[in-house]
TrEMBL record:
SMART domains: S_TK_X (SM00133), S_TKc (SM00220). Keywords: ATP-binding, Kinase, Nucleotide-binding, Serine/threonine-protein kinase, Transferase. Gene3D superfamilies: Transferase(Phosphotransferase) domain 1. GO terms for molecular function: ATP binding; cAMP-dependent protein kinase activity. This is Protein kinase. PANTHER family: CAMP-DEPENDENT PROTEIN KINASE CATALYTIC SUBUNIT PRKX (PTHR24353:SF37), CYCLIC NUCLEOTIDE-DEPENDENT PROTEIN KINASE (PTHR24353). Residues 117-175 form the AGC-kinase C-terminal domain. Residues 1-116 form the Protein kinase domain. One of its GO terms (cellular component) is cytosol. Pfam families: Pkinase. It comes from the Eukaryota. It comes from Pristionchus entomophagus.
Length: 175
């Protein structure tokens, strides 16, 4: 899964504040500059939301969401998988220099976490993606949908896109 609507090539720190409020890392909100550590934070949010059915940091408005992130009010449902809980806690480490993925081992630290023990990363590299976009030049945005100011059909992807991911287990090889 990817959403590169606000993707940015990064060399060092950036100060751009954009994205879904519930997914913003604390360093983005503190305006002290951030790096790719925000992506590891967002992965933690995504895993939490996929397992719990809601984001970990919530509020009635954007300011309350930001306050919840800054105060790091992180709570887990009782039935949350213990290995996933450990992974999420380490990805949602407030201090980016101590966050999983930002340590010396980088992405390998995340990939070697016990929650992923049944994933064969080598086999994942061999998988053919359901869509391989054609790029005509660096920075080609022709593969992104254009959205006007009209209301969309709701939170569901069109049927043709849902069908691509219907049998997702066959796409993610297990050891």
């Amino acid at each position: 899964m990817a959403d590169f609507g606000f993707a940015k090539e990064l060399r060092g720190l950036t100060y751009t504040l954009c994205g879904t409020p519930e997914y913003l890392a604390p360093e983005s909100l503190n305006h002290k500059g951030h790096n790719k550590g925000v992506d590891w934070w967002a992965l933690g949010i995504l895993i939490y939301e996929m397992l719990a059915g809601r984001p970990p940091f919530r509020g009635n408005n954007t300011n309350e969401i930001y306050e919840s992130i800054i105060q790091h009010r992180l709570k887990f449902p009782r039935n949350f998988n213990l290995l996933a809980k450990d992974l999420v806690k380490r990805l949602l480490e407030n201090e980016r220099t101590e966050r999983l993925g930002c340590l010396k081992g980088g992405a390998l630290d995340v990939m070697e976490h016990r929650w992923f023990e049944k994933i064969s990363w080598r086999d994942m590299q061999q998988c053919q993606p359901p869509i391989v976009p054609t790029l005509y030049h660096e920075g080609d945005t022709g593969n992104f949908d254009e959205y006007g100011e009209v209301e969309d059909d709701g939170p569901f992807a069109p049927a043709r896109e849902r069908d691509l991911f219907q049998d997702w287990e066959s796409v993610i090889p297990l050891r």
